[in-house]
Design brief:
The chain folds into 2 domains: 20-49 and 295-380, Aspartate Aminotransferase, domain 1 (Alpha-Beta Complex); 57-289, Type I PLP-dependent aspartate aminotransferase-like (Major domain) (Aspartate Aminotransferase, domain 2, 3-Layer(aba) Sandwich), CATH 3.40.640. The longest helix has 16 residues, at 274-289. The strands form 3 sheets. It has a 7-stranded mixed sheet with strand order 4-10-9-8-7-5-6, with helices on both faces. A 4-stranded mixed sheet has the order 1-2-3-12. The protein is globular, with a radius of gyration of 21 Å. The protein contains 15 helices and 14 strands. Helices cover 42% and strands 17% of the residues. Residues 108-110, 134, 136, 178, 182, 207, 209-210, 237, 239, 247 line the site of pyridoxal-5'-phosphate.
Length: 384
């Protein structure tokens, strides 16, 4: 076998042995909540399509109309000829939703963070990252070349200690965190982080991938703490509650202007397809017009945590920590046999020995579905 193939095969065998190999399973999503896998229809609690907008007729129609008018692809980077007329409309909507001067749309949330972070931090700078932050924050921080310091999850005191010790030795500083943690469902203490950031001149970036559309009246995690937190860099994705694809940053005009001229993943990557942009505009219109609808996923999550005596859900995501990766896979398989799709999440997505079921609730689940899932998961709660 060629050395390259031997390397890959051996690495896969080691991952298999640790129950950490991942496999793609063909999954057809026909509506907001039901999926087809291996010829079986399963009720999904694993989609991030929290408002089921990926399947909303008005959103689909907007995307189809955009293809008819503008074609399928953007054709180039937005700085060349890829800046079709729908971008300005979407960026205006996003900035209004987040209460900022301006916004910048990227190809995806991952591309947004690996572009934004290196635009504002480099070799002489310091970036503090919450230990449970998403992979793309770590990737962006690492690409920047700045010194990266990890603070304990949601621990303001720990972040404070790091800033006190290290801030003075660096030119600029940044604090980067998820606004809603993707695998835990809890909120970051954004008002306290913003205050700390202001005190130490450390720029706060929050990743609102799981907040937009579902917390803070649909405006996201910045708005989920009573008064709006002062977050100068609000990034997020259009691929979860917004139901489509794409990433964004909402910030001041100067920050957005710099990103549009310097962020590599913006400058050197093709603009988002017209259909994705038009679909996102229709989704944001729906979110703005239906604040009552945006609370439904969280309402279901809270009914679920009440039924199982778990700490009250803060977002539509509820983790059921199992511990060992093979046990988490087994429980997920058992649930699948009962007709529920609840995918097991394993390291390195979550820390070692905290493999879990990650339950995600969406607007179109029924209260009865939530209760049935609680009954099925109940026996596995508290085994970590
Ligand atoms: C999903 C996710 C992203 C990536 O967004 P994509 O648009 O899917 O690339 C970024 N951050 C967090 C916290 C996420 O959960």
């Amino acid at each position: 076998m060629p050395a390259l193939d031997t390397f890959a095969a051996e690495k896969l065998a080691r991952l298999d042995h640790k129950h950490l190999r991942r496999r793609l399973v063909e999954t057809a999503r026909a509506d907001g909540i039901w999926v087809m896998r291996g010829g079986r229809r399963l009720l999904s609690f694993s989609c991030n399509d929290y408002l089921n907008l990926s399947q909303h007729p008005a959103v689909k129609e907007a995307a189809i109309a955009a293809i008819r008018k503008h074609g399928v692809g953007a054709g180039a980077s937005r700085l060349v000829t890829g800046n079709h007329p729908l971008f300005a409309e979407l960026e205006t909507r996003l900035a209004a939703l987040k209460g900022t001067d301006a916004a910048c749309v990227f190809g995806s949330g991952y591309l947004a963070n690996i572009g934004i972070i290196p635009t504002f931090a480099s070799k002489s700078d310091l970036i503090l990252v919450d230990e449970l932050a998403h992979s793309c924050i770590w990737a962006g921080a690492s690409l920047s070349g700045a010194t990266v310091a990890t603070f304990r999850h949601n621990d303001i005191e720990d972040a404070h200690t790091i800033l006190k010790a290290q801030r003075a030795a660096h030119r600029h500083a940044m604090i980067a965190t998820d606004g809603v943690f993707s695998m835990d469902g809890d909120l970051a203490p954004l008002p306290a982080l913003a205050k700390l950031g202001a005190e130490y001149d450390a720029w706060l970036l929050s990743d609102d991938a799981h907040g937009i559309g579902v917390v803070g009246g649909g405006r996201g995690s910045t708005f989920a703490h009573g008064e709006a937190a002062d977050v100068p860099l609000q990034m997020g994705t259009l691929s979860k509650a917004v139901g489509g694809y794409g990433g964004y940053l909402c910030a001041s005009q100067a920050v957005i202007d710099l990103v549009k001229t310097r962020a590599a993943s913006f400058v050197y990557s093709t603009g988002l397809p017209p259909a994705s942009v038009a679909g996102a505009i229709a989704s944001l219109d729906f979110i703005a017009a239906n604040p009552d609808y945006t609370v439904r996923p969280l309402t279901h999550a809270r009914a679920f945590t009440r039924a199982l005596n778990l700490p009250e859900a803060q977002s539509p995501i509820v983790p059921i920590v199992i511990g060992a990766a093979d046990t988490a896979l087994k429980v997920s398989q058992e649930l699948e046999e009962k007709g529920f799709l609840v995918v097991a999440i394993r390291p390195p997505t979550v820390p070692k020995d905290t493999a879990r079921l990650r339950v995600a609730f969406t607007a179109n689940h029924m209260s009865d579905d939530v209760q049935r899932l609680a009954d099925a998961i109940g026996p596995h709660v508290g085994h970590a």
